[in-house]
Amino acid sequence: MTAVRGDKVAILGAGAIGLATAAVLADRGHRPAVWSPRGRSLVGMPPTSPLAATGALDGSWEITCAADLPTALSSADTIILALDANGHADVMDAVAPLLQPGTTVIIEAAHSLGAVYLSRLLHDRGIRLPVVSWSTAIATAHRTGPLTVDIRTIRPRIDAAVMPGDMRDAGIATCRTLFGDRFATRTDALAIALLSNCNPIFHVPVCLLNVSRVEHGETWAPYGHTTPSVGRLMEALDRERIAIGAAFGHEIHSVNEHFHRSFRIPLGSMAEMNATLFAAGRGPRGPRDIAHRYFAQDISYGLVFAAAMARSAGIAAPLHEATIDLASAALGRDFTADNTLIPLLGLQGLDRDDVLKRASEGYFPTTSQGNERPLP
């Protein structure tokens, strides 16, 4: 079922991105219901409460604060996962038994082919519905209170892929009805999880090479600390990412081009482009804790996943491997083991073509006829 204006949308995640997503939807006349997987974010909130946003979107709207998952999903035509990647598997486990045909699921800022795992859970139930992977969240935002959010940017373009392939048009139509004409269609979720996600390429080098600032809890700016040496590491990692994409038949643009398109600044080296942004007073503050998602998410669900895909394609990614090993040793954690999604995808032993098919169709049975070799 394609969502129509005014439909109820369940947002699973009540952090900055969940609240920003709710604000954008409410401003467009939809009815968001927000649920917190851990429960802490909405403690004490009445079932109907005002959500206030400032910045790129300024206003106040009544939203539903759901006390439990069934309440959030009740009568929802669309469900959006708006949480960090390390929470995706647990929430998918919880939501999959409750989903029904006619619903669209959107994974906002999809990582590590999480859509494939959700499709596996749905296949086990005999349920077939559109699962949409987004390259990024609808907005950049900072949560300023239980139901207040400062929205810095509403993104003008988001890449999106839909599985199964025959539901692509319906899934993209739902996204456009809910959020406007800002979606570019990708052929498969691998193009989203690996190719459209530049965050690990930018975040990890600048944070890892400034880890003493992080551990000291300093106030620092990643854009201001992207020196020529840091920028060269970003660009070297990016060349490997582009090579991995090419091995899967995807032509992708560089992290430099991403900054050029996203921030509308002249092309240059990463050091030059970051200096331009810093001089203009733009950009996030750096992490002040090594548990920050710039480490936990962007290494485990970014670099670790990219390295795994390189191995599937039979190509070397030595800098990805070295950066993962260095970060694991320095920060005292096994970032490879921290990715809880990869073992759940069932990609072990699949070759390049089979990985691409899984990234396009997931575990959903296809409706096409022919003599295609079935995946295990």
How much helix, percentage-wise, in residues? 40-55%
Rounded mean pLDDT score: 92
Strands, total number:
11
Tally the helices.
15
What is the rounded distance between the termini? Answer: 30 Å
CATH architecture of the largest domain: 3-Layer(aba) Sandwich
Low-confidence stretches: 1-5, 368-373
CATH class of the largest domain: Alpha Beta
Highlighted features:
376 residues, alpha/beta, Rossmann fold, N-(1-d-carboxylethyl)-l-norvaline Dehydrogenase, domain 2, 11 strands, globular
Give me the secondary-structure topology:
Elements: E1 8-12, H1 16-27, E2 31-35, E3 48-55, E4 59-65, H2 69-73, E5 78-81, H3 88-95, E6 104-107, H4 114-125, E7 131-134, E8 139-145, E9 148-154, E10 158-163, H5 168-179, E11 183-185, H6 189-195, H7 199-208, H8 211-215, H9 228-247, H10 255-263, H11 270-279, H12 293-313, H13 318-331, H14 335-338, H15 352-361
Can you summarize this structure?
This protein is of the alpha/beta class. The protein contains 15 helices and eleven strands.
How would you characterize this protein structure?
By secondary structure, the chain is an alpha/beta fold. It has two domains: 8-193, Rossmann fold (3-Layer(aba) Sandwich); 198-345, N-(1-d-carboxylethyl)-l-norvaline Dehydrogenase, domain 2, CATH 1.10.1040.10. 42% of the residues lie in helices and 16% in strands. The chain has 15 helices and eleven strands. It has helices spanning 16-27, 69-73, 88-95, 114-125, 168-179, 189-195, 199-208, 211-215, 228-247, 255-263, 270-279, 293-313, 318-331, 335-338, 352-361, and strands at 8-12, 31-35, 48-55, 59-65, 78-81, 104-107, 131-134, 139-145, 148-154, 158-163, 183-185. It has an eleven-stranded mixed sheet, with helices on both faces. Strand 6 (104-107), helix 4 (114-125) and strand 7 (131-134) form a beta-alpha-beta unit. The longest helix is centred in the C-terminal third of the chain and has 21 residues, at 293-313. The radius of gyration is 20 Å and the shape is globular. Mean pLDDT is 92; it is low at 1-5 and 368-373.
